[in-house]
Amino acid sequence: MKKLIGKLALAVSFITIIWLVLGMLMLGIYDIDLLIFKIPGTTEIRSHATLAVIFLLVASWAFWKED
Q1: How far apart (Å, rounded) are the C-alpha atoms in residues 4 and 40?
Q2: What CA–CA distance (Å, rounded) separates 49 from 56?
């Protein structure tokens, strides 16, 4: 179960990283705002980066080897 959670979190983190890069490119080139996740008091780019880091932390917890 722990490995399944880790794989799912890793996949979601890759999707959020791709969405972050795509959102920055679209905002810079075409003025289209794809960054929809907002945390009060922070920028939209930081909010999306935080979301990706949270999923990467969950994935690292799931793949951590316990002795």
Answers
A1: 32
A2: 11
Q: pLDDT per residue over 29-45, tens digit each? A: 777 677 777 778 888 88
What confidence tens digit (pLDDT) does each residue in 39-63 have? 788 888 888 888 889 999 999 988 8
Domains of the chain: total: 1
The 3-class secondary structure across 14-48, one letter per residue, is HHHHHHHHHHHHHHHHCCCCCCCCCCCCCCHHHHH
Q: Which domain covers residue 49, as residue numbers?
A: 2-53+59-63
Question: Which pTM value belongs to this model?
Answer: 0.75
